[in-house]
């Protein structure tokens, strides 16, 4: 088994649970409040992550990279909330943003020189189609529930 | 970002999200090779703070404190954070062009959990999505 696969599946399992909690939370508080609470959840883990940290001795450029990982993810969620506030239908917006792994894969091939086999290209296209299908929920009442299921990918 | 003309604002925002999340995967790949997953998650949290501050500003400081809503949010942070650590390890050990699509399949589990615990119906699009997701994981891991 590929070395990256078990860790990816752990992420799928944990983020899948996040999606469920998102559904539960989004019917009770707004997307923005949910995002603030989510960030508090991140912050609560920091004391457990800090022991053995080498942050103090890391180069500024590396620290910057790490910060950008958080910032791009959070800003992406912010724009999705904004789209839904501006009247985007969740049944269109969510599947559209579910195309993001395609962007990552193309950038990784172009910028990092990654190579995919023919089978993996087919797998990539199929995964993106699967993402579109899985995130499709019949159009329903907009507003809160929409903005909520939107922030699923905030993780 | 400034988009004018015929492109509706909401669509521009969706595309901005799509682009940012796409870039996020590449940045995570690069960062994961240069630091420990724990340090990366600390920095990820710090990098999220400006956006959380903006969200708080949008709420005019009135963070909603509905008990279940808040608890779901905090638990989301805990689960998402643990998932991110696994994601960084996966990124460190595999190509971003494969790890990103596989990890993005998490709605597969959400659909199954929602069917189990919330008794939501799995529609036929989602059923097809589950099948496609399983085949895609097999192909990407080969």
For the structure shown, list the relevant keywords:
A: mainly alpha, 7 helices, globular, B: mainly alpha, 0% strand
Set down the secondary structure blueprint:
The complex is a heterodimer of chains A (155) and B (142).
Chain A: H1 5-26, H2 31-49, H3 60-85, H4 90-97, H5 100-111, H6 118-134, H7 144-150
Chain B: H1 9-32, H2 37-58, H3 67-93, H4 96-103, H5 107-117, H6 124-140
Helix pairs in contact in B: 1-3, 2-3
Q: Overall mean pLDDT score of chain A?
A: 89
> In one word, what is the shape of chain A?
globular
Which chains share the greatest interface? Answer: A-B, 116 and 111 residues
What Rg of chain B is obtained from the alpha carbons, in whole angstroms? 18 Å
Quick recap of the structure?
Chain A is an all-alpha fold and 155 residues long. Chain A has helices spanning 5-26, 31-49, 60-85, 90-97, 100-111, 118-134, 144-150.
């Amino acid at each position: 088994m590929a070395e990256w696969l078990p860790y990816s599946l752990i992420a799928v399992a944990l983020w899948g649970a996040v999606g469920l909690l998102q559904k539960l939370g989004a019917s009770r508080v707004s997307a923005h409040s949910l995002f603030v609470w989510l960030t508090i959840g991140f912050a609560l883990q920091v004391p457990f992550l800090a022991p053995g940290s080498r942050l103090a001795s890391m180069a500024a450029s590396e620290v910057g990279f790490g910060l950008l990982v958080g910032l791009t993810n959070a800003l992406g969620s912010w724009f999705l909330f904004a789209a839904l506030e501006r009247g985007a239908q969740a049944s269109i917006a969510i599947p559209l943003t579910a195309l993001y792994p395609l962007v990552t894969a193309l950038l990784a091939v172009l910028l990092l020189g990654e190579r995919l086999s023919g089978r993996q290209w087919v797998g990539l296209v199929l995964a993106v189609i699967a993402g579109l299908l899985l995130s499709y929920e019949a159009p329903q009442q907009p507003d809160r529930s929409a903005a909520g299921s939107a922030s699923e990918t905030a993780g | 970002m400034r988009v004018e003309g015929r492109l509706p604002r909401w669509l521009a925002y969706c595309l901005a999200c799509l682009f940012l999340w796409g870039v996020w995967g590449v940045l995570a790949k690069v960062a994961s090779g240069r630091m420990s997953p724990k340090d990366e998650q600390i920095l990820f949290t710090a990098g999220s703070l400006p956006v959380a501050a903006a969200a708080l500003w949008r709420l005019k400081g009135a963070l909603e404190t509905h008990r279940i809503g808040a608890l779901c949010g905090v638990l989301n942070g805990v689960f998402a954070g643990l998932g991110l650590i696994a994601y960084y390890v996966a990124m460190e050990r595999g190509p971003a062009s494969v790890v990103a699509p596989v990890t993005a399949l998490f709605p597969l589990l959400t659909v199954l959990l929602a069917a189990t615990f919330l008794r939501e119906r799995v529609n036929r699009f989602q059923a097809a999505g589950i099948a496609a997701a399983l085949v895609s994981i097999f192909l990407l891991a080969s």
